[in-house]
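Supplementary Methods. Inverse-folding protocol.

Structures were first reduced to a discrete structure-token string of length 147. This string, shown here, constituted the complete conditioning input.
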């Protein structure tokens, strides 16, 4: 019982510290190393791989990864329809609806800004090939064939 109390007090002391650091500049506690965008028709499934700093990791460990959702909502600010599929401590998956538009035999994706820089952006087309675009702060104009 004493051990549980000690752990709870420690976590309560760490939470305001990590919250203050996050409020100071919320971009410091998370680093997005890579982003994979898998296109399918007009939609896209996005896998984000990221690292949290020590305080961010402790905060998420103690209170759960659902507390990352506001960070990702800000990250995908330029997308109209955004749905969380999975949130984790180092990986999350999202569904972005209507990110592309149909045009005869192709789908056209207009550039969409991201809320921060990602270390590596990979676009995966419906037919299977992928394109590694390196470090980016937006998903550029793309087109891909209808399947």
């Amino acid at each position: 019982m004493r051990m549980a109390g000690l752990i709870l007090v420690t976590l309560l002391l760490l939470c305001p510290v990590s919250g203050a650091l996050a409020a100071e500049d919320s971009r410091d506690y998370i680093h997005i190393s890579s982003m994979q965008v898998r296109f399918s028709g007009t939609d896209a499934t996005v896998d984000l791989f990221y690292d949290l700093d020590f305080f961010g990791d402790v905060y998420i460990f103690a209170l759960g990864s659902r507390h990352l959702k506001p960070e990702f909502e800000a990250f995908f600010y330029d997308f109209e329809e955004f749905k969380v599929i999975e949130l984790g401590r180092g990986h999350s998956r999202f569904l972005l609806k209507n990110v592309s538009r149909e045009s005869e035999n192709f789908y056209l994706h207009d550039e969409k800004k991201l809320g921060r820089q990602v270390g590596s952006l990979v676009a995966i087309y419906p037919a299977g090939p992928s394109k590694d675009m390196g470090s980016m702060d937006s998903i550029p104009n793309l087109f891909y064939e209808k399947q």
